[in-house]
């Protein structure tokens, strides 16, 4: 059976997985579910890391956008030695490691082998350091979970929040729709990558518009968190799909995603 791998991360985040899928003999189809729209333009003032004990980046996009803006304003100054930089997982920390702007020892995130890479796992990593943390900056999208900030505030820590981007649902064009319709002629051959609850909703909106809802329920899925898999279950259930979807949950690293796709493709 020909395997079609539908990659739904934003533009620029699907290329490596697409190349690996093609090398494995699968047919990759890049259909970004969400578009990233920056909310802060170069030159605008923004909070500086030296004013905080900890800067938390909730996603790879948050880290990338903040560092791009900071490098443009810092005149070559290094990241302050007293300020920690934290992310919810190894994948979202990659822009920090790649930047050479922050020392590795200042970067905190759950280990890549952790079952979940999320706010709860990050909180466990931060707990031993909390006595030294008095002020936190959370760099995020326009919307998202408030759990980590609320936990900090319950501990008496001052929390500032900086929204750097908006995630907007994409509308797949006619050529993308035609490619997807062709791939879903055999729904069981399609493996969809799901990387956020918002992307599940955005994908479902496109699927419904194209009249592919019934076939979508028979496809296979790889989700990078249990919450995303639960959102998929809810969306499919609301459209009348009574059978539970075939979902594999994995960590957000490309290696883990590729392995999960391989497992779903071989079923």
TrEMBL record:
<comment type="similarity">
    <text>Belongs to the uroporphyrinogen-III synthase family.</text>
</comment>
<keyword id="KW-0456">Lyase</keyword>
<dbReference type="InterPro" id="IPR003754">
    <property type="entry name" value="4pyrrol_synth_uPrphyn_synth"/>
</dbReference>
<feature type="domain" description="Tetrapyrrole biosynthesis uroporphyrinogen III synthase">
    <location>
        <begin position="15"/>
        <end position="234"/>
    </location>
</feature>
<dbReference type="InterPro" id="IPR039793">
    <property type="entry name" value="UROS/Hem4"/>
</dbReference>
<keyword id="KW-0627">Porphyrin biosynthesis</keyword>
<dbReference type="GO" id="GO:0006782">
    <property type="term" value="P:protoporphyrinogen IX biosynthetic process"/>
</dbReference>
<dbReference type="GO" id="GO:0006780">
    <property type="term" value="P:uroporphyrinogen III biosynthetic process"/>
</dbReference>
<comment type="function">
    <text>Catalyzes cyclization of the linear tetrapyrrole, hydroxymethylbilane, to the macrocyclic uroporphyrinogen III.</text>
</comment>
<protein>
    <recommendedName>
        <fullName>Uroporphyrinogen-III synthase</fullName>
        <ecNumber>4.2.1.75</ecNumber>
    </recommendedName>
</protein>
<dbReference type="GO" id="GO:0004852">
    <property type="term" value="F:uroporphyrinogen-III synthase activity"/>
</dbReference>
<dbReference type="Pfam" id="PF02602">
    <property type="entry name" value="HEM4"/>
</dbReference>
<dbReference type="InterPro" id="IPR036108">
    <property type="entry name" value="4pyrrol_syn_uPrphyn_synt_sf"/>
</dbReference>
<comment type="pathway">
    <text>Porphyrin-containing compound metabolism; protoporphyrin-IX biosynthesis; coproporphyrinogen-III from 5-aminolevulinate: step 3/4.</text>
</comment>
